[in-house]
Every structure is written in structure tokens, then in C-alpha cells.
UniProtKB/TrEMBL annotation:
This is RarD protein, DMT superfamily transporter. It is a multi-pass membrane protein. It is found in: Cell membrane. Residues 14-150, 159-290 form the EamA domain. The chain crosses the membrane at residues 12-33, 45-66, 78-98, 110-128, 157-173, 185-205, 217-238, 250-268, 274-294. One of its GO terms (cellular component) is plasma membrane. It comes from Geobacter sulfurreducens (strain ATCC 51573 / DSM 12127 / PCA). Keywords: Cell membrane, Membrane, Transmembrane, Transmembrane helix, Transport. The gene is rarD.
Length: 303
């Protein structure tokens, strides 16, 4: 018979695998959405939703797990929580699509760099998780980095803050929602589906749709949106169920690192001395945060 510590350690390892897989796939998302830069963000978002519903429907049918979806719709409190996560993930998707198309992947990487700190902060406020003095200092350094970018560039980094906050809140609420990852994501996309389908229908009626009428590679990329959207979110939700928010936030560094590399070296976005000062403060804060969080992970089974 497996004792509780062994079970917790196994669950933690499984959560780490799910989390890293999700973050690696998300890390290369800018390449995919850069290829769709000629399509309006709202149309890309609508296709992500519509094709995700189709993909998830197949998954649920094969796995015979529609009961979880029906249960979520029949429980008012759970449904209210999923309505909130639906709004948050839609905002996150739309802002990110816009950022890639507008050549602001560098700012999106900043958003995902501060997301671990947002997740940790939400864990403290809502889940009563504790932070060490070093981890508290990391928040101050990150705030200073955002302030420098705002004051020196004269532009509020709304993309970065929107991405960090929306995804941090999404992770928090999904952790609290009593629904498994596949059913939860299905409910979220089903709630958005009527709006997405209506908008795509309107675009087709107006002759403005990029799907089918556009280049073949655009049609193929849009059709792949369901698999590419659903897979990492299912993995992420599975990870949040098994790990502390602080641990999930720690692994998050994979995404902004890959985005940063793509923005500067693949997409040729400008990296100024102000960016360097801002990122340096945030990276220093993350080093402090990582140091203490890693001790918890390796000394406490990743929980």
C-alpha cells in the first residue's frame, strides 16, 4: 500500500511534467501567431475558441467524460467560477495575439516574467501561502522594473500587466474550481462558442473572413488552433491541481525566456538600455524568489 508521502511525491513529479510541457509549447507560440499576423486578432481568437470546442468534444467523446461537463453546468457555484476563468482566459488570449501581431513580443515576455510573482502574490492573499523576506524583496524589485519601463518610455506597459494579471488570476481560480482540467476547459470554450461562431459567421457573410478564402497556409494554421490551444491549457490545469501556485509560477520562467529570445533574435524587436535596466531588476527579483521557492520544491516534494 502506497503511503501518503510517496503519493504526494509522485503527484508532484507528475505536476512538474505537465507544467513544463505546457510552458515549452506556450514558449514557441509567438512563431505560430506571427504567421497569422495578417489576420485580425479577434478573428484569430474566434477560431481558437471554435476549433478548441471541436477538439475538446472529440477528446471527451473518446474518453467518455462528458459527465464532468454536465456536472459543472449543473452546479451554480462552479459555473460562476468558470464564467470568471472564461473571461480571464479570453482576455489573455486576445492581448497576446495582439502583442505578437503588433510586434510587441518583448512586452509580452515581460508580462510572463512578472506572472510568477503575480501568482505568488495571489497565493499569499487568497490561499494564505507564506513568503520569506527574500521573496518579498523580489516583489519590490519587480515593481521597480515595471516603474522604470513606464517612466523612461512614457508608455504604460499594459500588455505586460494584462497578461501577467489575467493568467495569474486564471491559475488561482482554476485551482479552486472543483472540476478536472478537461471538463473545465470545455465549459470555458463552450461559454465563448456562441460569440465566436457568431463573429465568424458575420465575417463570412461580409466576405472578410481569412478562413478558406485566404491563402491555404492561413486556413491550415487557423484549423490547427484548437489542438494548439487546448493541449497546453489541459496540461497547465493538471499541473495546478498537483502543485502549489508558487511552484507553478517557478516553472513559468520557461515561457518568457523563449519569448524574449524570439523577440530579440528572431523578430528583431528593439532592446534598449531602458529595457535592460527594467528586465535586470525583474530578473534579480526572480533570482531571489527562485532561490527560496526551489528550497520548498526540493525539500517538500514540490508541493
Amino acid at each position: 500500500m502506497t503511503n501518503p508521502p510517496d503519493h504526494e511525491a509522485r503527484e508532484a513529479r507528475t505536476g512538474v511534467i505537465f507544467g513544463l510541457a505546457a510552458y515549452l509549447l506556450w514558449g514557441f507560440f509567438p512563431i505560430y501567431f506571427k504567421a497569422l499576423a495578417g489576420v485580425t486578432p479577434l478573428e484569430v481568437l474566434s477560431h481558437r475558441i471554435a476549433w478548441s470546442v471541436a477538439t475538446l468534444a472529440v477528446m471527451l467523446t473518446v474518453a467518455r467524460r462528458w459527465d464532468g461537463v454536465r456536472a459543472a453546468f449543473s452546479q451554480p457555484r462552479t459555473l460562476m467560477t468558470l464564467c470568471a476563468t472564461t473571461l480571464l482566459i479570453a482576455v489573455n488570449w486576445l492581448v497576446f495575439i495582439y502583442a505578437v501581431g503588433a510586434g510587441k513580443v518583448l512586452q509580452s515576455s515581460l508580462g510572463y516574467f512578472i506572472n510568477p510573482l503575480v501568482s505568488a502574490f495571489l497565493g499569499v492573499v487568497f490561499l494564505h501561502e507564506r513568503l520569506s523576506p527574500k521573496q518579498k524583496a523580489s516583489f519590490i524589485l519587480a515593481a521597480a522594473g515595471v516603474a522604470i519601463l513606464t517612466l523612461r518610455h512614457g508608455e504604460f506597459p499594459w500588455i505586460a500587466l494584462s497578461l501577467g494579471l489575467s493568467f495569474g488570476l486564471y491559475g488561482l481560480l482554476r485551482k479552486k474550481a472543483p472540476v478536472d482540467s478537461l471538463a473545465g476547459l470545455t465549459v470555458e470554450t463552450l461559454l465563448l462558442f456562441p460569440l465566436a461562431l457568431g463573429y465568424l459567421g458575420w465575417l463570412a457573410y461580409q466576405g472578410k473572413s481569412a478562413f478558406v478564402s485566404g491563402p491555404t497556409h492561413i486556413t491550415v494554421l487557423l484549423a490547427c488552433a484548437g489542438v494548439l490551444t487546448s493541449t497546453p491549457l489541459i496540461w497547465f490545469a493538471a499541473a495546478t491541481k498537483r502543485l502549489r501556485l508558487a511552484t507553478v509560477g517557478l516553472m513559468q520562467y520557461v515561457v518568457p525566456t523563449l519569448h524574449f529570445v524570439l523577440a530579440v533574435f528572431a523578430f528583431g524587436e528593439t532592446f534598449t538600455p531602458t529595457h535592460l535596466a527594467s528586465f535586470a531588476l525583474i530578473w534579480t527579483g526572480l533570482v531571489l524568489y527562485t532561490y527560496d521557492a526551489a528550497k520548498l520544491i526540493f525539500g517538500n516534494g514540490g508541493r
